[in-house]
Amino acid sequence: MRGVVLMQTSGFGTLPNAVASLALPFQIPLLMIVSERGTLGEFNLGQALVCRTMRPVLESLAVETHTITRHDELEFIVDRSIKQAVATQAAVAFILSPLLTGGKAFAA
Are 36 and 94 in contact (CB under 8 A)? Predict the structure, then answer.
C-alpha cells in the first residue's frame, strides 16, 4: 500500500520542511494532492499568500507539479505521475485547480 497527503493550499504552508528534510533526502515517493485556494475571488489573505508561494517553493525543491484543470486529463496525469514518482523515488504534487473542483463558494 502507498499513502497520499491530501490538503488545501493553506495546509501546504506547514509542509516544506518535512519535504526538504525527510521525503527528498531519503527518497520517499511522496504523493501530494492539493486543493487550490487563494485564487478566483478568494477573500482570505492567508490562502492567497500561500497560493502565490506554493509553486515556487515546490519548484525550488525540484518537486514535480501538475495543475489539473479538467476531468479528462486527471486519470492520465495521475496514473503516469504516480508510476514515475515510485520508480524514481521522488515527490509529485497534484494541484487541483478551482476550474476542476468548482472552488469555494463565497457569500456576496
Answer: no
Q: Are 101 and 71 in contact (CB under 8 A)?
A: no
Q: Tally the C-alpha atoms within 13 A of residue 74's C-alpha that lie toward its C-beta.
A: 11
Q: For the chain, which residues score pLDDT lower than 70?
A: 105-108
Q: Cell match 469555494: residue?
A: 104
Cell 476550474, residue located: 99
Choose among 102, 4, 9, 100: nearest CA to 53.
9
- The CA-based dihedral angle spanning residues 94, 97, 100, 104, taken in that order and rounded to the nearest 10 degrees: 120
Q: How far apart are CA 97 and CA 25, in angstroms?
A: 29
Phi, psi of 81 (to 5 degrees): -70, -35
